[in-house]
Amino acid sequence: MSTEHSLNNLAAMPTRDPEAKRRRLLDAARAEFAAHGIAGARVDRIAKRAGCSAGLVYTYFGGKDELFDAVFADVVDGAVTEVPITPDDIPGYAGRLFDAHERHPEVARVVGWYRLERGTALPSSAGAATGAKVAAVRAAQEAGTVSRRFDAEQLIALVLTLSAMWTAASVEAGSDAADRAVRRATVVDAVRRLVEP
Fold it and tell me: What architecture (CATH level 2) is domain 83-197?
């Protein structure tokens, strides 16, 4: 066998990419936890969906609970990265949050399972993300561009709730695009009325 032939065979072999495997496990676990919660999720289903061995879950994450924590942290990080707050346009921010909820309905389910099964306050990663949003709103209030009718913490809670309440994941949501556009416009308008000075 020639050296060139050996190199070609080596190039055709799958490479070891621990980060790619970790990412596949996180994505598979997000779907599993969204569908079944922490108690109902199964490591073997997660591994099968990720195309990995179940042992890798324990190698990378330590166990199912730690994997759920990693998924939750990933969800929080993704939300902050995908939809950063814009304190100069909070109604637009609410509309973008609505869109993100529509694109990723599993996120609301993962958060719901966290609240149901953990029964505790959200972890520090979520608290830090919310704290940054509160600080941005408070600065906008001090600058006079956002109303002080509600304190910054209340305003963020209202914006987050309004942006999620009529998405495709809610039972009240209609399924057609026209209805979706009306729901989104209503959310944006409601937030505009909350924040206008």
Answer: Orthogonal Bundle (1.10)
